[in-house]
Fold:
Amino acid sequence: MTRIIAGRAGGQRLKSVPGSATRPTTDRVKESLFARLDAWGMCEGARVLDLFAGSGALGLEAASRGAATVTLVERAAVAAAVCRENATLVAASCPDTKITTVQSAVAGYLGRAAHHRWDLVLADPPYPLDNDELARTLSRLAGRLGPGGVIAVERSTRTEEPAWPRGLRRFEDGEHGETRLWFLEADDHAPGASDAD
Structure:
């Protein structure tokens, strides 16, 4: 069982998604991820999007740390139901954060939310998702970040670095056991980046 590490809901235990289809982020990786995000001031007051949300643990950690809005996007019905349960648990300690769960494929959600902008995007796709499909999904986020916005992508260390889509660039990464975190930002100098939507 995972838990909220810090913030308003710190210590709150979260329900896990039953079965083996969902791979939860370890507390160690989560601590490393949010230590960086906090150092950059990414959570407080942020509009947060948690893609491939699983149990919602990453987005709800951001909620606990002061995000203004958190949207959890999860395709599987069982996992989306767990997201909703966990969101209810965390919302009790974070009444100022609007938490929404959307049961949808990520690409479909991003296509429907064409005019939304986010300050922080957390993406923990299934490891079997290949890099080409991941790049196509992330391409829908080009031009969709607020000023100073960040995308954090969690992948296996056994997976090569993806070819990041036009309009986004990697500015930092870090390895934590079998997990690598990639951090992306808008690449405003990429050809056609200003046209992305």
